[in-house]
Amino acid sequence: MTLDLEPSLASMKQQLADYCQAKQIENAIVVGIHTGGVWVAEQLMSAAPTKDPLATLDITFYRDDFTKAGLNPKVNQTSLPAIEDRHVILVDDVLMSGRTIRAAMNEIFDFGRPASITLAILYDLGQHELPIAADIVGESLKLNPDQRVKLTGPKPLAVSVIETD
Amino acid sequence: MMRSESRALQLNDDGQLKHFLTLDGLDKTILTEILDRADSFLTMGEQSVKKVPLLRGKTVVNLFFENSTRTRTTFELAAKRLSADVINLNIETSATSKGESLLDTLQNLQAMQSDMFVVRHSDSGAAHFIAEHCTPNVAIINAGDGRHAHPTQAMLDMLTIRRHKGQFEGLKVAIVGDILHSRVARSQLQALTTLGVDEVRLVGPKTLVPGFFSEMGAKICHDLEAGLKDVDVVVMLRLQKERMQGALLPSESEFYRLYGLTEESLSWAKPDAIVMHPGPINRGVEISSEVADGGHSVILNQVTNGIAVRMAVMSMAMSGQLQKAETDQGSEGEK
Question: Considering the entire predicted model, what is its pTM?
Answer without folding.
Answer: 0.87
